[in-house]
Amino acid sequence: MFDQLREDIRVVFERDPAARSTLEILTAYPGLHALLFHRLAHRLWQAGVKWPARMVSHLSRWLTGIEIHPGVVIGRRFFIDHGMGVVIGETAIIGDDCTLYHGVTLGGTTWQKGKRHPTLANDVVVGAGAKVLGPIEIGSGARIGSNAVVLRDVPGDATVVGVPGRLIERKPRPVDTEHREKIATKMGFDAYGATADAPDPVAHAINCMLDHVHVIETRMQHMCEMLKENGYEPDEANLPELESCEIISTAEELQKMQRAEGDDKAH
Description:
Layout: H1 2-15, H2 22-28, H3 30-46, H4 50-64, E1 67-68, E2 73-74, E3 79-80, E4 87-88, E5 93-94, E6 99-100, E7 105-107, E8 119-120, E9 125-126, E10 131-133, E11 137-138, E12 143-144, E13 149-150, E14 159-161, E15 166-167, H5 178-187, H6 201-229, H7 250-266
Parallel strand pairs: 1-4, 2-5, 3-6, 4-7, 5-8, 6-9, 7-10, 8-11, 9-12, 10-13, 12-14
Antiparallel strand pairs: 14-15
Helix pairs in contact: 3-4, 5-6
């Protein structure tokens, strides 16, 4: 029992950088309190003492804001961070090393008895506010994004975001990314801010732009080399700094257009 408690405390230290001491964890972490209450309630439930088990669960919800049905099966090193509003239904199964954040629901989609809640394999992380519903399986190492609504099975090591939940396809990183970094440095911004595997349309557009600029630069370099071979020496020109470039935002242009239209109407 004490070995398991030490393991629970160690997990909090590993996954919550705000944890400062063992005393703080024992006295001020509702996720740990809810887990301890659940272990007692689950033992009573398995022993067939249903009503006392439900009362322990009810007391736990009142004290911690976390509702875990006594029938839930939970593995080792389970961690609930913050925890307020977490709801875990009766037939849910949670593997080892899983993490849930506040507002998570592992719920059902039917009133029929039987298996109607999710099964989480090992090392699953469910973000704040996410809803995982129905007798579905979440594979080992999967990540559920905040506020996602998941209604279908999720393969291992996958990431799901959105409503309804959709898998993020991680494309393989291009073999040659050095040219992107060089061009981005020339243009005055950080290439690392536009990663190839980020599920972000803006990052994808920037990467496509960098590739396009790279092709244009390569062609221009070849053209200059051919001109030099034919006796023409082109002037060497450096790219201007971005700070010195005059950039007019779309918002400013719209404001000017609106003012111009207002002046026309006034006349």
